[in-house]
Structures are given as structure tokens and as C-alpha cells.
Amino acid sequence: MFSLYNRNLSMKKLSLLLSLFAGIVFFCSCGNTRQLQYMQGQFDTVKLSQANYPEPVIQKNDLISITIYSDDPKASAYYNLPLQTTASSTGGNMIGLGATESSSGSSYLVDEAGSIQMPQLGRFEVAGLTKKQLDSVIVSKVKDKLQNPYVIIRMLSYKITLLGEVSKPGQFTIPTERVSLLEAIALAGDLTPYGRRENVLIIREINGQRTFARLDLKSPDILGSPFFYLQPNDMVYVDVNKTKAALNDQVVVRNIAIVTSLISVLAVVVSLSRTN
């Protein structure tokens, strides 16, 4: 009788320990879930209602498409590159002018001096200009020669790079010429559970000048950051959090193995006690 009483008491203690362990795991899971959430807390609707979208700036080595139109198509054609390509599966390079044939028409590669060369207009600098500013420059050059001229400009090399703790790291081409940080993260398959959401690094280089910004994805204030909308060639790096760093530590891994073994032993003891 006394032995049965002790066995029942031991079973109650063991059950209590297992329940306590399960509770700790549950609360830790709740805490980890909160760490994975984006833009927590209150939104300042007045402050964040206006989108802060900086227009992309043309940079050296960018590929841009420029086509000039007017009321006289024949006159306009003198200012556009003829599509004389070399035999190449990728379209090839235009001879002497650094232009290629693309689905958008003739395109120009901005050289290391930040310039392009256009028919009839010669060589002029475009690096550091937005599309709207370049439009004004070209229209000012042809307005005395063409009737009602207008220009269509497209950026063909709008690419961003995502590295670190994202599901699909790599380089992504943006066809819309506009992408936010959250949209870019979605393209990369979201952050992994080990990514530091409170400290995402953005590296931006414009005309040889490199700038850095660290954004907290858990704060709604990122919507008002000038880095929330990415620029061409931006690099986004997501650092690893302490959880993964700890898991990679051999001592911690060994301790986890020991705890797992103890739990297995306790499970066997419980099973044998119920059998007896």
C-alpha cells in the first residue's frame, strides 16, 4: 500500500514537471511568434499617410531606353538609334554608340563618365538625373527642331539584391521601376525565423557615394523612411539573430542533446510505471 502511494506521488510529480516543461515551451513559442511580426504597435496615420517615394536616379553602368517622338515621325527618327544589331542571341551591341536592341526599343549603356551618346545630340551626362529631369534635358535639345516633341524613358537595369536570412537570397529585376522594402522581401520568400527584423541593413550607392541605413521592420515608422522604397542596385542584408547563433554553438547543441535524452528517459519511466 505504501509502495503504491509512493508510486502515485512520483507520478504526480513527474506529471507536474512535464506540464511545467510544456508550459515553458508554449510561452517561449508565443514570444518567438511576436518576434516574427512586422510593424507592431500604433500607426501614426497623419505622419505616415503620405507616401515618401523618391524617383530613381540614373547611375553609371545603368541601361536605359530612350525614344523620342513628335508630330513628324520621320523627323523624330533622326534622333533615335536604328536597330542595327550584331548577330547575337542577346540582341548585341550597337556599333560605336553603346546601344542595344530591347523590347522597349533602343537602349543606352551609361558609361563610366556618367554619359551617353545619342544621334544628332552627341554625348551628354545623364548620371545623377531622374527620368523626369532627363526628359527635360532631351526636350530642351530638340524643341527647336521637332514639333511637339516628347520622350519615353525606361530603366532596363532596375535590380536589387537581397542577402542573408531570407528564404531565397539573390538578385531580382524590377519591371515596374518601383519597389518597397516589404515587396522586395516578399520576392525573396520572406525572412527566415532567424532573421533580425529589427535591424535590416540597406546599402545604397549613387555615383560612387555609398550610404547605409538600418530599418526596424517591427516598427510602423519604416513607412516614412526614405529607404522604404528601394533604388536601383540597392543591397538589402538581413543579419542572423541570437537564436540561430546560439543553435550553432557546439556547447548549446550538446546541452540540448542531453536534455532531449533526459526527456526520453523520463518518458520511458512513465511508460514502465503505467505498465506496472
Task: Provide an overview of this structure.
By secondary structure, the chain is of the alpha+beta class. Among the domains are: 45-54 and 158-240, Outer membrane lipoprotein wza domain like (Outer membrane lipoprotein wza fold like, Roll); 63-155, wza like domain (wza like fold). Helices cover 34% and strands 24% of the residues. Strands 8-7-11-9-10 form a five-stranded mixed β-sheet. Strands 2-3-1-6 form a four-stranded antiparallel β-sheet. Mean pLDDT is 77; it is low at 25-31 and 84-103.
What's a concise summary of this model?
The chain is an alpha+beta fold.
Q: What is CATH's topology name of the domain at 45-54 and 158-240?
A: Outer membrane lipoprotein wza fold like
Kindly state the number of beta strands: 11
CATH architectural name of the domain at 45-54 and 158-240: Roll
Name of the CATH superfamily of the domain at 45-54 and 158-240:
Outer membrane lipoprotein wza domain like
Q: Please trace the helix and strand order, writing H or E for each element.
A: HHEHEEEEHEEEHEEEHH
Helix % is: 25-40%
Computed Rg = 30 Å
Mean pLDDT, nearest integer? 77
Largest sheet: 5 strands, mixed
Oligomer: single chain
The stretches of 5 or more residues where confidence is low (pLDDT under 50) are 25-31, 84-103
Q: Helix count, per DSSP?
A: 7
Per the principal axes of the C-alpha atoms, what is the gross shape? Answer: elongated
CATH class of the domain at 45-54 and 158-240: Alpha Beta
Distance between the termini: 14 Å
